[in-house]
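1st attempt posting a full record on here, be nice pls
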Amino acid sequence: MRRSTCLLALLLHGAVALAQVPPVPGLTAQPPAQVEAPKDALGRDTPRGTVLGFMNAARNGNDEAGTLYLNTNLKGKAASDLARQLFVVLDSRLPARLADMSDRPEGSLRNPLRPNQDAVGTIATANGPLDLLVERVSRGSAAPVWLFSRATLDAIPDVYAEIDLVSVDRYLPRLAKIRIAGIRVFDWITLLVAGPLIYYLLGLLSPLAAPVAALWRRRRARTGAHIVAPAGTVIPGYVRLLVLAALIRWSQSGVDLPFIERQFWTAVATMLGIVAATWIMLLVNEYGERYVERRLGHREYAALLRLVRRLADGTVIGASVLVTLHYYGVDPTAALAGLGIGGIAIALAAQKTLENVIGGLSIIFDRAVQVGDSLKFGDTQGTVDSIGLRSTRIRTLDRTVLSVPNGQIANAGIETFSARDKFWFHHFVSLRYETTPDQIRAVVDGIDKLLASHRAVERESIRTRFFRLGPFSLDLEVSSYVFAADWSAFLEIQEQLLLELMRVVTAAGTSIAIPAQTLHMTEPLPPDATARRAGPSGQPAERPSPPGKASEPARIVNN
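the predicted structure (as tokens):
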């Protein structure tokens, strides 16, 4: 064992020493340097770069550059004509979704059997859907590039002959053709003027649909279903947004718009659809909150339901933002990671708040305290006014409002008066010492009959006993439980019982004892009485007191 330990220490020492030896120049193996492949000057390194580069070149009238994006054997004018036809087809039919095109040098790899081929879109033709394909081609020693495939180029002339769209350029004045951020002024005016106008006009159609809406409401009322929309709302705003988005998509199919403008209007229609869907989901959350609150019928669940609704609303809005980012090709992974780290920091900084929120949830679910309960919390006594997620408000007997954090309520002892199923009627009846045993028995029997005859008193719990000989009175203990709706009702019943109990005592020929004291005084002695009472040795000599004179000190007798 000792040899193995020494050998292990020697090996470790050698390894450390070897690690501290400086490397010998020329003998240290260096990793081979990775040579970055040169980027293509025309942007044909990725499928998206090929499509955008071709569209820009063809739009600027550079036919020679446009032919460099085609995988064809045509030369000269034939290649230029094919490039022009391809541009018209793409500019009018290519789906305006750049996010669907791969921006990686290896492509999207959607089809593992054809890794060097990628689809940039699908268009509708007379012969069915046509996939617009680009393929990765290697030419000589240069890096491979993405070009429009031969199969796609063979189908372009037939698709070009099918295009029969209405071009709005010929009807527009020159001023309307001016472009701002690549979009014509006509499109901006249509968006900012025609869009709100159509939205407003759709709202004016509400009276026309009023009879149909009234019939629908009557049928829903017969089935007992809850009507979500108010009586005066026929065409809500989210419906008008959906109709406006549908009109935009429909108009795109019959109007010849450039690709960049189709991207613009497609983005507008998509945003209208996202806003309308978010609007609908928020209304669904509101309806769900009111429905659950109506079914539960407990006021203490209001704060919890409001929290759940806010969380649901935040989830809906967050999902709509993520969908929007995904539509524009933005990867929200980094933002979500940052939000996660920020959430951890916020959770650490808000420990007390989270403690109170969790305490509020435990109070609500356990129903240890409910709204309207009369309770005693420490030295505070009052009624629960409301239960929130962070604190509970208690209306004290002084009619002030005390806000107590839920974390303290969840960890403290609370005496709830409202949770009592019955109230304790417990009193001591003090009778005078002049009361005879027969009178005491009469009082005991009378109290038992009184309690047994009352309909609010629990008969099994009735107990009346001669309890003790008190310092001032003869004490009887009266105990029973009383059924009452609340504390006020119990006080009323208790008042009736106490008045009848006094009548029972009076009927027995006795009365309630009053604490009293009797003071007995002695006659004071003359000044020389002390000397005469002393004996020869100085000890006081006893002398009988004269008749009728009290020689003992004053004493107090309790009555």
